[in-house]
Design goal:
Elements lengths: L1 H27 L17 H12 L18 H6 L16 H6 L22 H12 L4
Helix pairs in contact: 2-5
The chain binds heme C (HEC).
């Protein structure tokens, strides 16, 4: 009897350890080779290049009135401020930015959320993700 309980406890701890490990691992070890390459476009700006993309696919959930995760994507300031969990942009390094990882579906919470989790928007194309990456690489102006 006792032995059986111990076995169950060990099993539970093992399962927990494993899932915690994989969650942390997912944030730390992003396979950068899976990211779309940065766009080669020069002088990428939020106003000209990024805002139209976010307006179309993101601000219905990250807008002025209702911002999920307290992340506002309708203004450059909002994007740079980040979410309730912290920054989503590492200025100068798109490949390290959670924003880009989310768009590429490589983070724990792919954005926009996929249909099975209630989302309805289409994922960004590789070209659009590359543009966001270039925008951050170039200093998020
Ligand atoms: C259907 C609503 C919805 C849409 C559309 C949406 N998001 Fe989100 N987003 C959320 C929710 C909800 C959260 C908070 C998730 C949580 O903390 O569990 C979130 C969180 C985030 C985060 C923080 C992720 C993290 O791991 O902390 C980023 C970055 C983000 N969204 C970017 C985007 C971008 C970029 C778009 C447009 C391509 C987008 N979102 C579209 C609902 C949405």
């Amino acid at each position: 009897m006792m032995k059986k309980i111990m076995l169950i406890m060990a099993g539970t701890a093992g399962a927990l350890g494993l899932s915690l490990g994989s969650i942390q691992g997912a944030e730390k070890e992003i396979d950068l080779s899976k990211l779309p390459p940065a766009s080669t476009k020069a002088n990428v700006t939020f106003a000209q290049d990024i805002k139209p993309l976010f307006d179309k696919g993101c601000v219905m959930c990250h807008g002025p009135r209702s911002a999920k995760g307290n992340l506002h994507l309708d203004t450059r300031e909002g994007v740079l401020k980040g979410s309730e969990d912290g920054p989503v942009v590492v200025t100068g390094n798109g490949a390290k930015s959670l924003l880009v990882h989310s768009l590429a579906g490589l983070s724990r919470k792919p954005m926009p959320p996929q249909p099975k989790s209630g989302g309805q928007s289409r994922s960004f194309s590789a070209a659009d993700i590359g543009l966001v990456r270039a925008w951050i690489d170039q200093g998020a102006k």
